[in-house]
Amino acid sequence: KYVSKLIKVVFALLVFSVSTLGWAAGKIAVVDVQGAILKTDVAQKRLGEVRDKADYKKNKAEADRLKSEGEALFKTFKKDEAVMSLEQKSASEKKLSGIQDDFRIVVEKMQQAEQSIARELLQDMAPKAQEVLRDIIKAESIGLLLQGNAVIHAEDSYIVTTKVTDKLNQLNAK
Q1: Cα–Cα distance between 3 and 7 in angstroms, integer?
Q2: pLDDT tens, N- to C-terminus, the chain (174 residues)
Q3: Which of 12, 83, 116, 158 could cross-link 154 (Cys pair, CB 3.0–4.6 Å)?
């Protein structure tokens, strides 16, 4: 009789645990709010405008030139390194270092331009994103919403970032 009661209790706990796990799985979601905002049509348009500016294009061309020049110099250096004098090696290394420094400076300028627009977009669109998230949380009965960078792994079915982007695009289209 005692074993029978124990089996019933264990079975009831097992059923309860399984149903709770199933309930919880449908209530968890993952979102990358920053990614959702920056993938909107408005954000892509604004970033495109930055990339179309003369200064940005000039920096991009300079970065491409420096990259090609650095790769060619490095290739030549590696090919001829064995027959170079210490003086030649030092001069080549110094030139490569200068190209790397110039490349880094130019790329930083480009990144600063993009980051400036990204900050503006995030600041401007954060209230809309919060509103959209509240709607999605309510519509999908989400009990736990995790920030994407806090999650090691999530199957696509748990990720609502694209839904946030789509709803933001709909709001911005109005």
Answers
A1: 6
A2: 444 444 444 444 443 444 444 444 457 899 999 999 999 999 999 999 999 999 999 999 999 999 999 999 999 999 999 999 999 999 999 999 999 999 999 999 999 999 999 999 999 999 999 999 999 999 998 888 899 888 899 888 889 999 999 999 999 887
A3: 158
Tally of CB atoms within 10 A around 134: 10
Q: What is the pTM of this model?
A: 0.71
Distance CA 9, CA 82 (A): 78
**What span, in angstroms and rounded, lies between the C-alpha atoms of 146 and 33?**
10
Buried b (16+ CB within 10 A) or exposed e, 27-41: eebbbbbbebbbbbe
DSSP string computed for 43-86: HHHHHHHHHHSHHHHHHHHHHHHHHHHHHHHHHHHHHHGGG--H
* Residue 81: how many other CB atoms lie within 10 Å: 12
